[in-house]
Amino acid sequence: MKIGILGGGLMGKALAEHLLNQKCELSIYNRSIEKIADLSSQGARICGTASEAVEQSEIVILLLSDADAIATVLDSVEPNAFIDKLFIQMGTIAPKQSQHIETQLSSAGAAYLECPVLGSLPEARSGKLILMAAGMEDNYRQALPLLKIIGETPRYIGATGRGAAVKLAMNQLISGLTVTFSLSLALIEEYQIDVEQFMQIVRESALYAPTFDKKLDRMRNRNFSEPNFPTKHLAKDTQLFLEVGEQLRLDTTALQGVSRLLDKTISMGLDNTDYSAIYAAISPDRK
C-alpha cells in the first residue's frame, strides 16, 4: 500500500511515524521540508513538491491546517497526478468546504473520502485515533484497510459533509468543556479550596469528563508548552463552527463568548501553546 501525506504538522508527522512503524510505503510533503526531514531516516520518502508525493502514492492523506491550505496545495499538483488516486481529507473543515473539495477532485479524476480524526499525538502514534468517515461507500471500503491501521474502529457516518459536521461538533465540545472547567477551577483556586478534594467530587458526579484530569496539571502549573493541539487551531475550529452555525441559524451566543476567550488567549502570545492555555486568559497569574 503506497501512502502519501500532504501536510507534516504535528498530526501529520505523528501519523507518518505510525504508518512507517507499520511498514507502510510512505511519501510525505510539507511546505517547510525541514520539519519532516528526520522522517527520512525512518524510511519515508521526503518530497519536494506535492505533485511528487501524489505521483508516488495510491492513497493520499490531506492533513493541512484549513480549506485554504488544501486548495493551495492541490492547485500545485500536476493535473495528471490526480487520476485514479484516492484522497482522504483528515483535517477540520466545514461540510460545504469538504463537498467542494470532493467536486474538485472528482473533476480531476480522483476519488475522495472525508475522514476527520479525533485524538491527539499519542493516539496518532499508537493507531488509536477516532475516525469519522463520510463519502461514497466504495471509497470508504477502499480506504478501510488503511483506516484500521490509523484507528481501531473507523465509523462510516454517511454522505460527504457529515463527517466534517461530527468533527466540528466534537471540537465545539473541546472548547466548551475547557472553558467551563477552567472557570470552575479558577473559582476553587481563588477560594484556596483543596483542588484534589474538588476533583474527587467532580469525578464522582455525572459532570465529569476525562479531559478535566488531562488538562488539570497544565492549568495548575501554567505549563502550556509542547502542545498536542495548539490554541490557534482550536480558535480556528471554533470560528468555523460559528460560521456554520450562523448558516444554519443556530443560536451560538455561548460559543461566541468562548471564541472571544480564545482570541484573548492568542493576544497574550499563547497561540502556539496547548489549548489549555485558555486558563491563563480566564484566571490571570497573580504570583
Summarize the structure.
This protein is an alpha/beta fold.
Could you explain how this protein is built, in words?
Residues 2-158 form the 6-phosphogluconate dehydrogenase NADP-binding domain. The protein has 12 helices and 9 strands. With 287 residues, it is α/β, with parallel strands linked by helices. It has 2 domains: 2-159, NAD(P)-binding Rossmann-like Domain (Rossmann fold), CATH 3.40.50.720; 164-282, N-(1-d-carboxylethyl)-l-norvaline Dehydrogenase, domain 2. Strand 4, helix 3 and strand 5 form a beta-alpha-beta unit. The longest helix is centred in the middle third of the chain and has 29 residues, at 162-190. The termini are far apart. The model has no long low-confidence stretch (mean pLDDT 97).
Layout of secondary structure:
Elements: E1 2-6, H1 10-21, E2 25-29, E3 45-47, H2 50-55, E4 59-62, H3 67-75, E5 86-89, H4 95-107, E6 111-114, E7 117-118, H5 121-126, E8 130-135, H6 137-150, E9 155-158, H7 162-190, H8 195-204, H9 210-221, H10 231-247, H11 253-267, H12 278-282
Helix pairs in contact: 7-9, 7-10, 7-11, 10-11
